[in-house]
Amino acid sequence: MMTRIYLASPHMSEEGYEQAYVKGAFDTNWVAPLGPNVNQFEQELADYVGVKSASALSSGTAAIHLGLKALGVKEGDTVFCSTLTFSASCNPILYLGATPVFIDSDAATWNMCPKALKKAFEDAIKRHQLPKAVVVVNLYGQSADMDLILELCQKYNVPILEDAAESLGSTYKGRMSGTIGDIGIYSFNGNKIITTSGGGMMVSNHEAYTKKATFWATQSREAERHYEHKEIGYNYRMSNVVAGIGRGQLKVLNERIVKKKEIYETYKEAFRDIEDIEMMNICDFGESNYWLSVMTLKETSQVKPMDIMLALEKENIESRPVWKPMHMQPVFKQYPFFTATDDQPVSEDYFKRGICLPSDTKMTAEQQQHVIDIIKGLFK
Ligand SMILES: *Cc1c(COP(=O)(O)O)cnc(C)c1O
């Protein structure tokens, strides 16, 4: 059996930066939760994306949870959320006892459709219940078209939480993804563009939000000699060892983006003359980090997504469908959903026709060629 080719797997630096920071934590016995790596990682990430403050947390999901809480989401509220995403984008809405309202995708960006968002706002006005927040997801590395979304949210005075778990290092009109909304979050899970094995970060230009997140994430412990608590807390803080991995990974983030783009361009070039294959559209309003290379098959294609996934799996190559929209999920299907089309919603269409291709930065040119040959072979 050939060595497995992954969708996206952890890729530590050749220089060993991560191990050096982790060793530093061991050498100074800062293996406890808090420590200098945590503060440094926050500072370095905040500097990288150009934002005032950051709070290092145990996961991207925890960052969304505390981000929504910081925006005041509580029981009985509604929160708008992109439907085409991973469930972690909306689970925290329910942790807080609020109701999600799902918004369809725009065909060009794959992300939140401003027209569908407008419909949802108009409905909310009619019901006299504006949402407490809007969770905008930047899928597979590409930013949503933030200007149109910002304009609507500002009109109704509703804050944005930008789920940039998949888009660290991407830009939108020169601004870093995750820094455009009131609060942004990143994930360092094992398959993300950089990883700490597991972890997340909340960023904001409003320091009050990140400070509050850090406070809640450390069990809401008041500044007293004894343990004093006036609020419910969480054990959501990133550990000093984990933050050391993050500091090392941050040094190679730009290299990873270059490689991810090369992977995408190679697929695009290779499939140019196969009419049934279309690579995910990359909008010229920004630079994607190309976290995953995604393609769609034409509706009329004789080869179906499952044929490709099975052919790859047979050769020990990982691929997967596009996210199944949240409004189609059994656990969320009772919640409202807004789309701007009278036809099949864009998100459902992409779910049915899309495939995430191996986008591992450790993949060699020969391995990627092997993936391409298998797929091309199906169209002969
Ligand atoms: C990975 C991911 C998350 C969650 O991050 P974790 O660190 O795994 O909790 C949230 N949203 C999106 C879109 C993701 O891809």
TrEMBL record:
The keyword Transferase applies. Transmembrane segments: none annotated. Pfam families: DegT_DnrJ_EryC1. The keyword Transferase applies. Keywords: Aminotransferase, Pyridoxal phosphate, Transferase. One of its GO terms (molecular function) is transaminase activity. Belongs to the DegT/DnrJ/EryC1 family. This is Pyridoxal phosphate-dependent aminotransferase EpsN. It comes from Turicibacter faecis. The gene is epsN.
